Amino acid sequence: MKHVGTLKTTGAKVVIVNRTLPGDPLSALVIDRQSLPPFESDIVESLLESGDGQDSFEFGHILGRQKMPLEDANNPVVQDIATSVQGISVLEHLHTSGRLIKQPTENVLVTEEGADAIQLDKLNEMIAEQKGVKVEGLAIQADTTAEGTSAKTEARLYISRAERLQKQVDAYKERAYELDPELRPRKGRPKKVTEEV
Q1: In the chain, domain spans
Q2: Collapsing DSSP states into helix, strand and coil, what is residue 121?
Q3: Rounded to the nearest 5°, which phi and psi values hold at 165?
Q4: What's the confidence (pLDDT) of residue 146?
Q5: Is the pLDDT of residue 184 over 70?
Q6: Taking the CA atoms of the chain, what radius of gyration do you get in angstroms?
Q7: Are the C-beta atoms of 60 and 91 separated by less than 8 Å?
Q8: Which of 75, 1, 5, 68 lies closest to 33 in space, CA to CA?
């Protein structure tokens, strides 16, 4: 599986979020897999194992596109953020909860299946050479794609939010009709109103 490794110093199993950082090519961002609470772990692991997760060059792109499902959180502030049109990405959530750990790339051993473990700094050098760029050129770029993935994600969030609001509107109307049945729209054609001349 791609984007997984261990830390040389502690042996901790990690998910590699960013293989290198803008302005700091000798550092990477990782997540300690054992430190994640079950809910966050389920989300990160399912994204990691997904086709998109395995096809991505940087796992951080996938975490940045996926919204964190926090609607049922106990904290009202978190609920408001989660149910807003923009929501909060899994990446933002992991960052604000202190789950992203900066590590020297030489301390991260990449352990993809069927291959020998290799230090991330050495792997980055090999990839940069293949791409014809310096290691600095591997840093994650803005989250935009030619396919417009970000716009599609935002559109789905608008639809989801609109559907939730529509359910709320329908419930309010039904309550109003219970309180005053005369407000309920009547079926059939409205009576013709003739003007007297």
Answers
A1: 4-141, 144-183
A2: helix
A3: -65, -40
A4: 36
A5: yes
A6: 25
A7: yes
A8: 5
CA distance 116 to 105: 17
Strands (E), the chain: 4-7, 13-18, 27-32, 100-104, 108-110, 118-119
Exposed, middle or buried by CB within 10 Å (0-12, 13-18, 19+), for 15?
buried
pTM of the model: 0.63
Query: Tokens 């003739």 sit at which residue?
Result: 194
As a whole number of angstroms, the distance between CA 4 and CA 120 comes to: 11
Among 46-60, 62-76, 78-92, 107-121, which is the least confidently predicted range? 78-92
Token pair of 48, please? 């990691």
pLDDT, residue 29, reads: 92
How far, in Å, are 143, 147, 149, 165, 167 from residue 159 at the CA level?
21, 19, 15, 10, 12
